[in-house]
Structure formats: C-alpha cells, structure tokens
Design brief:
It is a single chain. This protein is an all-beta fold. Helices cover about 0% and strands about 40% of the residues. Strands 1-2-3-5-4 form a five-stranded mixed barrel. The protein is globular, with a radius of gyration of 14 Å. The termini are far apart. The mean pLDDT is about 85.
Length: about 140
C-alpha cells in the first residue's frame, strides 16, 4: 500500500510532507516511550494512540477507528515544538493531527517495531498539532 494521498492536498507543499493523507484523530494513549536524546538529527517524542474517532481524513480511504497509530512529535528546534509535551500518560485521552503513513509504508524504528504500526507524522506546525489535557501543541 502506498502512503500517497488520493489527491494533492495543501499541506503537501511543505518540505517535511511525505505526500500522505491528513488525519485528525481522537483516542486514548496506549503507550508512551522514553524520549531519545537524538533521532536522525531531531528529537522526537514517541507514543501510541488507540484511535476512537476520526475527525478528518483528507486524501485517505482506510477506516482508522479501532486501530493503533505510532505518533512521533518533533521538538527542540524551530521546525517542531519548543519542548516535549509534558505529562503524557497511558490511558489518557488525546487528539492529534498529522500525515497518516500506513504500516506497509512505515519504516521500523527502535520504538516502532514488532509489529510496525502506522505512523502519524508531521504532528507540528504548520500542518499538525496535538491537543492534550486542554492544551494545544503545534
């Protein structure tokens, strides 16, 4: 399965876009990983969301409800969030938006392996965001 969207979307013009569908989901955090010191030149906060509701899925056709998605939130530089999202805990509700990369196109990482989950990528400005405990992070 390709990670390409079914149409060209406005967010595809950004350098970090992978040309994937834009997904906005609500769900429950099922796992939070320790943050790595460095991940390919940028820091990323990793966690898994069990999707309960899809608010938007532009350019995609899969049914995402009931699936788990690996989320990577860039932080610590001028391209992502200034810092990590504080207090992420398993069992808590969360909302996130970013590019959806299906498991067939997702590459394994130290935290996303065995099995490789689909990925919610580009979860920061100017395309994505995370809303957690009433706070909006972009």
């Amino acid at each position: 399965m390709s990670n390409r969207a079914t149409q060209i979307l406005p967010h595809h013009r950004y350098v970090h876009s992978l040309g994937a569908p834009l997904a906005c989901v609500q769900g429950t955090i099922s796992k939070v990983f320790d943050s790595p010191e460095n991940h390919h030149g940028a820091n990323h906060q990793h966690f898994v969301i069990h999707i309960d509701k899809v608010l938007k899925f532009e350019g995609g056709t899969q049914n995402l409800v009931g699936t788990d998605v690996f989320v990577a939130v860039r932080f610590g530089d001028n391209e992502g969030l200034p810092q990590e999202i504080p207090g992420l805990q398993a069992g808590q509700p969360i909302e996130a938006q970013g590019e959806y990369i299906p498991e067939a196109s997702a590459y394994p990482t130290e935290d996303n392996t065995n099995p490789v989950l689909p990925v919610l990528h580009f979860t920061h400005h100017p395309v994505g965001y995370v809303k957690y405990e009433g706070q909006y992070y972009s």
